[in-house]
Specification:
Layout: H1 8-17, E1 20-25, H2 39-52, E2 58-59, H3 81-99, E3 103-108, H4 114-126, E4 130-135, H5 136-143, H6 154-163, E5 187-191, E6 194-197, E7 200-203, H7 227-248
Helix pairs in contact: 2-6, 2-7, 3-4, 5-7, 6-7
Bound molecules: zinc ion.
């Protein structure tokens, strides 16, 4: 059930039987030369469409912006920052709390959003509510280790092909990941904001555009993706999420902190 498609009377009726709502949170950011900026928003939206076929949980409108400062510089990336997302999610959940919603399930499409989601989740806990943070791509990799992947790699590319294969241009994937040692040969770039210095990892927060030649990151090459992989993975996640929602519905709420 989509909040944006029902009347307030329907929301009143829904709240008599459930205090749970799903809030999809995405991002608008670079995903490599071969995939659209809306990847992290389009995938949660497709998961919700599939979920609706088997579950009538209330779903809030998708938040299309996230905390993605590290991907700024790639044209089109929009970041509202960790603080901006904390503010948006706090206002959204506080509004919903006023009517009786107490269980908030975040369907998250982007890793950079997790700092904000965790802050908001702990604040909700103190107010006698619960938040569950579902990172679909991490969980898909747990459900089937063959699906595990990085940013704009095989896993996400397959998921977008599962949404709409015309959104991917495979002809633009023609090189390896090609990370650049942007702080010189003594400090090798090893991953997302990390370098190796004499055998130990150091985190140096910085924009990815300075160390990624083509905007995707991960061990799973994007050109390994197929539409079948994407469809199977999204459906498996949806089946898992349907079960989770039914279990989470019956979990006891915490006691609100006294002032
Ligand atoms: Zn992504």
């Amino acid at each position: 059930m989509r909040l944006e498609r029902v009347t307030y009377g329907k929301v009143q009726e829904y709240l008599k039987k459930s205090d749970m709502i799903v809030i999809p949170v995405g991002s608008t950011e670079n995903h490599g030369r071969h995939m659209p900026l809306g990847t992290d928003t389009l995938i949660p939206n497709r998961i919700i469409e599939l979920l609706e076929e088997k579950n009538d949980v209330m779903v809030a409108p998708t938040i299309p912006y996230g905390a993605t400062d590290t991907l700024m510089g790639f044209p089109g990336t929009i970041s509202i920052g960790v603080d901006g997302l904390v503010m948006v999610l706090t206002k959204v959940t506080d509004s919903l709390r006023r009517y009786g919603f107490r269980k908030f399930v975040i369907l998250n499409g982007h890793g950079g959003n997790n700092k904000s989601i965790e802050i908001v989740g702990m604040n909700l806990y103190k107010k006698g509510c619960l938040l569950a943070d579902l990172n679909w791509w991490l969980m898909a990799g747990e459900l089937n280790p063959a699906w595990k992947g990085g940013h704009g790699g095989g896993e996400e590319t397959a998921a977008i092909m599962g949404v709409d294969p015309s959104l991917v241009d495979m002809s633009l994937i023609h090189e390896d990941m090609n990370l650049i040692d942007d702080y010189g040969p003594e400090m090798k770039t090893t991953g997302w904001g990390t370098v190796d210095y004499k055998g130990a990892t150091v985190i140096i927060p910085r924009e990815m555009i300075h160390y990624s030649a083509n905007g995707w990151y991960g061990k799973d090459r994007p050109d390994t993706a197929t539409e079948e992989w994407g469809k199977e993975m999204l459906q498996s996640f949806v089946d898992w999420m349907d079960d989770f929602l039914k279990t989470f519905e019956n979990v006891k709420l915490p006691e609100a902190e006294k002032d």
